[in-house]
Amino acid sequence: MRIKTAITVLISLQLLLVVALIGVAITLQQTQKYAEAAVDRRVYSYQLADELRQSSDDLTRFARTYVTTGDSKYERYFREILAIRNGDIPRPVGYEGVYWDLVAAGIDNNWVDGTSKSLRSRMLEIGFTNEEFDKLSLTQNRSDTLVRLEDVAMNAVKGRFDDGTGTFQIEGEPDRRRAIELMHGEIYHQAKGSIMAPIGEFMTMIADRTLAEVASFHSWERRLAIIDIAIACLLLLSTFVSVILLRQRVLAPIEVMASTAKRVSDGDMSARANVSGASEIANFSRTFDHMVDSVSKHLKEVEQGRQKLTSQTLELEEQQSNNERLLLNVLPVSIADRLKNGEKKIADSFPEVSVLFSDIVGFTEMSARVGAKQIVDMLNEVFGMLDELANDHAIEKIKTIGDCYMVVAGVPDRSSIHAQQIANFALDAQELLGEYSRKSGRDILMRTGIHTGTVVAGIVGTSKFAYDLWGDVVNIASRMESTSEPGLIQVSEAVHVRLQDDYHFRSRGEIQIKGKKDPMHTWYLTGRDSKALPDQELDDVEGVC
After folding, report:
1. Residue 513's closest CA among 501, 525, 521, 505?
2. Does pTM top 0.85 for this prediction?
């Protein structure tokens, strides 16, 4: 084969590879843009769903406030929310999130009006699937039904009633009680729940679809990067072969180009031939240098794309880990596992548990004397110690309300020794607070009450989860605490019966408990015998019931 022909063939091949390299790189850049757009659509889709949920919550809030107070501004807020959602008035810039919280609080943030576009139109623009849009349409339709109920209640406050045609032409005496019943009754709660269910299903559908879409683009990014590198390698290989083939025919310039190609093949993308002149070899040299520039540029772009993909993957993993930790912070482990396994409604009956309430004596007076930061620091220290103690005794913290601390034994993990667990916790808490008072110089006393009986436990809330207890046991335990004396642990007869063989008590006698017709005989828990169940044996008998 003649040199001229060989050169022509080799150069043509190289140019073809350069074009392919550039084409793949451009495709890679476009794919990255599509991936970014897919992420943006994913975020915006969530925003639209959340805005629909938030608007429903805000409508409920202002309707209830209006029927309770009769203040006309809350009805005005109610109408403005509907008008913005329907696109009848401009939607303020930054409307998402806390807009109505700030407006209700009287905080003027100098909002700027945006476009007048209904929430439904914005949903159509984002490109939801038919199934997804059906879910959102169902939600909005149900929300409109709820708005009708709210409208009936608000008109009842003004003494206006439905004439049977959907308008409120019949006037009479204002019926605020009827309005409040409508806004807080079972029908209203059922209607409200029917709105939230399809929103949850929609967000799951969006998560699955958009995640698959983003993953698909990322997969293409990886494939294109591999192809780009492969073409670059082929391009370098063809160049090196050309140099070797022509070495003996065009020694001087080819030697320079060969040396340059070697450096490039070794990874030095800054190497250039820089052969001067107007000859074919010189022209080829300049083409070669341009090729290396292109390869270097595109390799950098490939590396940047890889780094970006890695960063996005790490962010997704971190977000998932944060969600797991947040769920375990607000719910017991077993309850969190049931939620993750798809259980929608969690409510369990426990025939026998022990509930404890405790509060800091003189907290109100202390708050008036001490600064807010000192009060918060003290509560964090005290409740932090009690949290660790609760974990040590295998009991569940339910909540804190101000300076009040509530725990339960036997929930959610059933236990045959719930009374002993709660008693040991109460006695150890007294010792712990005594030691804290000595070290801190603060005279901290807690008033404590305990009762045993049947409760129902479950999750309440939709946007914010909370695990709570219900039953007369909770009320009596609270009364045991409120009627106790500083530094003492008051227990009911039910607790005394279960613990009298292994613990020390002092009879207080009969006291009148709020909400109870007959007086109750109560006791003060003062200590435990050496034969009482040691703390280290708790794990061995958990879950017997």
Report:
1. 521
2. no
